[in-house]
């Protein structure tokens, strides 16, 4: 029986785990980073380790000794790094992609095993539903390839690479006098829970904005 270890703590990642697990396979879900160590993983001896919605750095001794796969919601090598959904929407991108790649010691740079495009319209909850669907289908395709003893992989083209930092909560502030309506709308629709929500500073406190529409 094949054994799969799944590290993830975000709700959308856990949903993918629940969709993809199969009673004919051994699946183990880990949400606590304390278990991301060689001793624990050696006790399970997984065929693949999945890191979906996982922000912590994975120790090199794990990456170098196991097949570790990561799901990144961007068309890698573009938009490497943190807050990929938010950085793409705010940059005005219309489409993105779910990319599943083999991890290396270099962040978001391994061989691509699956990549499929999706639309970035709508609010974050709608975008995450698309990511979950493609995350499920991409994961099952990779497992099927493992069973066929063929993984393949596409080497990323470094010429096309772009890198972005994780957005900080203070960057969720909307400044209507500095930004146009479309830009503010894009900020609001992608800055939804569990990520730092869009807000406007008021004379006292902050006004949190969950929904909006704009006119030109």
Explained architecture:
The protein has helices at residues 11-20, 38-44, 60-63, 84-90, 124-147, 181-190, and strands at residues 3-7, 26-30, 48-52, 68-72, 80-81, 95-102, 112-119, 163-164, 199-201, 206-208. The protein has 216 residues and is an alpha/beta fold. It has two domains: 3-164, Rossmann fold, CATH 3.40.50; 169-208, Methionyl-tRNA Fmet Formyltransferase, Chain A, domain 2 (Roll). The strands form three sheets. It has a six-stranded mixed β-sheet with strand order 2-1-3-4-6-7. The longest helix has 24 residues, at 124-147. It is elongated and about 60 Å long.
**Name of the CATH homologous superfamily of the largest domain:** Formyl transferase, N-terminal domain
CATH names the topology of the largest domain as Rossmann fold
> What is the helix content?
25-40%
CATH class of the largest domain: Alpha Beta
Using the 3D structure, state the CATH architecture of the largest domain. Answer: 3-Layer(aba) Sandwich
The helix tally amounts to 6
Largest sheet: 6 strands, mixed
Give the SSE order as H and E letters.
EHEHEHEEHEEHEHEE
- Tell me the strand order in the biggest sheet: 2-1-3-4-6-7
Mean pLDDT over all positions: 94
CA radius of gyration: 19 Å
Structural class: alpha/beta
Q: Are there runs of 5+ residues with pLDDT below 50, and where?
A: none
* Subunit organisation of the chains: single chain
In total, how many domains does the architecture comprise? 2
Shape field: elongated
Distance between the termini: 58 Å
Residue share in β-strands: 15-25%
Give the tally of β-strands: 10
């Amino acid at each position: 029986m094949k054994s799969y270890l799944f590290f993830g703590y975000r709700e959308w990642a856990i949903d993918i785990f629940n969709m993809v697990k199969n009673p004919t396979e051994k699946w183990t879900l880990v949400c606590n980073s304390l278990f991301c160590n060689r001793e624990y993983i050696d006790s399970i001896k997984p065929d693949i380790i999945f890191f979906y919605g996982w922000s912590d750095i994975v120790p090199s001794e794990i990456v170098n000794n196991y097949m570790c796969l990561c799901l990144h919601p961007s068309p890698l090598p573009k938009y490497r790094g943190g807050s990929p959904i938010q950085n793409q929407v705010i940059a005005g991108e219309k489409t993105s992609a779910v990319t599943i790649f083999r991890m290396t010691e270099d962040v978001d740079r391994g061989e691509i095993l699956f990549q499929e495009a999706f639309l970035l319209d709508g609010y974050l909850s709608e975008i995450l539903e698309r990511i979950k669907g493609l995350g499920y289908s991409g994961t099952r395709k990779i497992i099927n390839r493992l069973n066929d003893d063929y993984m393949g992989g596409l080497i990323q083209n470094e010429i096309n690479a772009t890198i972005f930092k994780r957005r900080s909560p203070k960057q969720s502030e909307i400044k209507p006098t500095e930004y146009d309506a479309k830009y503010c709308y894009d900020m609001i629709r992608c800055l939804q829970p569990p990520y730092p929500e869009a807000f406007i500073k008021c004379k006292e406190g902050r006004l949190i904005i969950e929904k909006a529409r704009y006119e030109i």
